[in-house]
Amino acid sequence: TADLCYVEEINKQRYCDPTKEKQWPCAPKKQYYGRGPLQLTWNYNYGLFGKENRLDTLKNPDLVSRNGVVAWRASLWFWMKNVRPVVKKGFGETIRAINGALECGGKNKPAVEARVKYYTEYCKRFRIPLGPNLRC
After folding, report:
1. Which chain regions cross the lipid bilayer (predicted)?
2. Residue 4: pLDDT above 80?
3. Residue 21 burial (CB count, 10 A)
4. CB 58, CB 27: distance < 8 Å
5. Is the per-residue pLDDT at 1 higher than 70?
6. E strands of the chain, at which residues?
7. CA distance 12 to 70
8. How many CB atoms neighbour CB 83 within 10 A?
């Protein structure tokens, strides 16, 4: 999100996982790119979030970027479901929980290094220890 400056992903893609389409069908002409402060991505995340929050975000994914309350709810929902459980394992595991399929395992080393750099700078500013496992 570039320090919370963007509510929509810059490099927009469809992010429709065909293996999850039976349960979370992608709506025609809709894209499930990152939206919100902690950008929600993929049809299955939009589907699960919508189901648990009684919103049809599969048919209307733009709701996540156009409604500030929904945007923050989606971000907090994703954090609590996917990121919070791995926080104690180190920063690298939070990268894996958020963007692992696209960045971890050598898939996008520059992106991982940029995230580690931001994290390190914030830890220094707040005078908190870095913790273990900085990279995924």
Report:
1. none
2. no
3. 13
4. yes
5. no
6. none
7. 20
8. 16
